[in-house]
């Protein structure tokens, strides 16, 4: 697989794992699709995906600086994995309640703009992106613009699938169904967290092994003076 395709898939998987948990933006998309139609729900999802693209672009822009600050990638992976695992537990324990709303009469531009504002004010989103930074940094040779574009593709692709399913099966959309979807999203986030934790543990073991090897070589190179 080419470097570009790998970077695109990596970004898309990150965008999907960040967008999939059922939170305020997801509930807004679902409720607007039910009350205003598929186009309104897609405009809302596009606004959220735009914010995800922005955060992905910021990670792309400051990736080199973050890599310089966090010279120990194992520590960064362990911290990020711990944060993501805590958020995954929070998602798995959360309960989503779908509320009946009035018929939505907002224009598509208003739906898009309000979704951007809501996503920007959601404090969990930047935390997720910061925690997922090692997944960006490990692709040091990958084109970062493609990674950021992949985040947008994964995020907006999720909103397209979610809103289309809600529009087609609106009678089946209940709070119980949303909670089941949320559990699946929480498991996806937990898998990403565990992968970062494993990478951090492996990196820490490798660093200790290399340090021990260097110490052994240095010790072997210094010999006691022989007696004449």
How is the secondary structure organized here?
Elements: H1 3-19, H2 24-36, H3 38-69, H4 73-93, H5 108-120, H6 124-131, H7 133-137, H8 144-168, H9 175-221
Helix pairs in contact: 1-8, 2-3, 2-8, 3-5, 3-6, 3-8, 4-6, 4-9
Question: Tags for this entry?
Answer:
single chain; 228 residues; mainly alpha; 9 helices
What does the model show?
The protein has 228 residues and is mainly alpha-helical. It is built from 9 helices and no strands. It has helices at residues 3-19, 24-36, 38-69, 73-93, 108-120, 124-131, 133-137, 144-168, 175-221. Helix 1 (3-19) packs across helix 8. The longest helix is centred in the last third of the chain and has 47 residues, at 175-221. The radius of gyration is 22 Å and the shape is globular. The relative contact order is 0.23. Mean pLDDT is 74; it is low at 220-228.
């Amino acid at each position: 697989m080419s470097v570009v395709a790998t970077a695109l898939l990596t970004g898309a998987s990150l965008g999907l794992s960040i967008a999939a948990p059922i939170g305020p933006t997801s509930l807004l998309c679902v409720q607007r699709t039910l009350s205003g139609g598929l186009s309104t729900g897609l405009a809302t999802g596009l606004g959220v995906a735009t914010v995800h693209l922005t955060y992905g672009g910021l990670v792309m822009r400051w990736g080199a600086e973050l890599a310089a600050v966090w010279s120990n990638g194992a520590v960064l992976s362990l911290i990020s994995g711990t944060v993501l695992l805590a958020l995954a537990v929070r998602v798995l324990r959360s309960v989503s309640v779908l509320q009946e709303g009035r018929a939505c009469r907002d224009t598509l531009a208003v739906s898009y703009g309000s979704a951007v504002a809501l996503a920007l004010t959601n404090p969990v989103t930047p935390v997720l992106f910061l925690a997922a930074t090692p997944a960006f940094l490990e692709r040091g040779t990958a084109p970062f613009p493609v990674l950021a574009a992949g985040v947008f593709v994964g995020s907006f692709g999720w909103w397209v699938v979610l809103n289309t399913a809600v529009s087609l099966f609106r009678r089946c959309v209940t709070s119980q169904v949303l909670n089941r979807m949320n559990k699946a999203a929480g498991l996806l986030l937990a898998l990403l967290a565990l992968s970062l934790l494993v990478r951090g543990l492996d990196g820490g073991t490798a660093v200790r092994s290399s340090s021990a090897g260097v110490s052994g070589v240095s010790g072997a190179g210094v010999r006691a003076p022989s007696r004449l």
